[in-house]
Amino acid sequence: MGPTSGLNLDGQHDHIRDTVIPTFLHFNLPLMTAGWIAAMVL
Questions:
Q1: Is residue 8 part of a domain?
Q2: pLDDT tens digits for 6-33?
Q3: Which of 1, 9, 30, 38 is the most exposed place for a label (fewest CB within 10 A)?
């Protein structure tokens, strides 16, 4: 059980739209941007 397992108690939680997309936008995009910049600097 993950940290978002309780979000579906109301039956309206869409895992992809409510969990995966915000996580991707707020974690992966800055991570990839920083990695790309570091690769260009090195």
A1: no
A2: 777 778 888 888 888 888 899 999 999 9
A3: 1
What is the tally of structural domains in the chain? 1
15's CB contacts (< 8 A; 6+ apart) are: 4, 8
Phi, psi at residue 4, to the nearest 5°?
Answer: -105, 10
What DSSP assignment string belongs to 7-42?
GGGGS---HIIIIIHHHIIIIIHHHHHHHHHHHHH-
- Residue 6: its H or E element: none
The whole-number pLDDT of residue 1 equals 59
* Within a domain: 2: no
User: How many Å apart are CA 26 and CA 4, to the nearest integer?
Assistant: 16
